[in-house]
């Protein structure tokens, strides 16, 4: 356990784990800037992956989710293409 600073908002503290998982996933993938990344599921961890991929300069990030709100967030977080998982395949 790591203590949370008293001045850190709880909602920000709650996002540290999903962000850490996203960073770890992108590192494990060994993706290069010239690769195409596909993120299936745009919940907190998927959005973290998209943000990290974008920060690392990946040229094409495709995101897929059933939720219209999560697809909207995926675009805001840096996905280049966003697909409705109910109507289009990300593969």
Mean pLDDT: 95
* Contiguous uncertain segments of 5+ residues: none
Radius of gyration of CA atoms, rounded to a whole number: 14 Å
Structural class, by secondary structure, is alpha/beta
| Relative helix content | 40-55%
Strand order of the largest sheet: 1-2-3
Portion in strands: 15-25%
Largest sheet: 3 strands, parallel
Distance between the termini: 39 Å
Order of helices and strands: HHEHEHE
Q: Please give the count of helices.
A: 4
Q: List how many beta strands DSSP finds.
A: 3
Q: What is the overall shape?
A: globular
Brief account:
This protein is of the alpha/beta class and about 90 residues long.
Give your account of this protein's structure.
The chain has 91 residues and is an alpha/beta fold. The protein contains four helices and three strands; from the N terminus they run ααβαβαβ. The protein has helices at residues 10-14, 16-29, 44-55, 68-77, and strands at residues 36-40, 60-65, 81-84. A three-stranded parallel β-sheet has the order 1-2-3, with helices on one face. Strand 1 (36-40), helix 3 (44-55) and strand 2 form a beta-alpha-beta unit. Helix 2 (16-29) packs across helix 3. It starts with 9 loop residues before the first helix and ends in a 7-residue tail after the last strand. The relative contact order is 0.16. The mean pLDDT is 95.
